[in-house]
Amino acid sequence: MRAPQPEPPIPGSFATPSLLAWIVNGKYVMSLPLYRIEADLKACGATISRQDMANWMMNVHARWLAKVHERMKVELLSHVRIHADETTVQVLKEPNREAKKKSRMWLFCSARCDVPVYVFEYHETRRKGVAQEFLAGWSGTLTTDGYKPYFNLGNPNIANTACLVHVRRYFAQIVKIAGGGAKAASAASVALEARRRIDAMFQGRLQVRRHGAGCQEGRPRRGAPPAHGGLRGMGAGPASPSLAEAGAAPCAAVRCGVLALRHERARRRGTWSSRTTSPSRPSESSS
């Protein structure tokens, strides 16, 4: 007796699940172009054209991976914390679009302490409608780099926080313009102090991770004063920014600092309900 042959992942094709998985891994994980994979298969005695493999990839996406993508999106939108970012990509031979034009790869992902979910979406533009459509009906805290459209999604249930890595860049840029750390220190630079405090925050979080504490276990108890001082009290007292700081987009740094302060307070309290406004940052059209 012979067991019935299982249904192939692509009807009418000899491609097995393991072969398809091997090609997907080679192309999208190892970044191997299909002509390289074709050459590798040929060296092993298997003649499979890259045209066939390209068709298989599109077929696998339409039949299977699109369903996985939708399930991952549902899982991500069930979280109360989401990180978002986008970067430029160049696509060759795209219909009705010049190859030199830059498109965008958007990423929406979970926080480190949640179930890891990374959802990539390709779009031709950076318009805010992409984020609006993805996050429609969602409620929670959105952490981004300060790109203005993220802070103007028209959803009152989204609390915005700024990524501290990007916040630090504003302050680091001011310190650099001021002539470096030594000169900034002699001028009692607010930006230098902000940079140092953010570095201390990073060090504190790193120590928590090294001790294996999760998101809940690694959070300080409610009401406990932060060991590094956070960004509380920034700009208070007799010290004033230097002239170099005054000419280096201080508004952007201060606004980002406010966002970071609210983010840090919310993190320490274990709440995620603070409402923020957008930091100043050059941006493309948000339409």
From TrEMBL:
Compositionally biased intervals (Low complexity): 271-287
Positions of region (Disordered): 211-239, 265-287
Pfam families registered for this protein in UniProt: DDE_Tnp_IS66 (PF03050)
UniProt xrefs under InterPro entries: Transposase-related, Transposase_IS66_central
Span of domain Transposase IS66 central: 13-209
Protein name per its UniProtKB record: Transposase IS66 central domain-containing protein
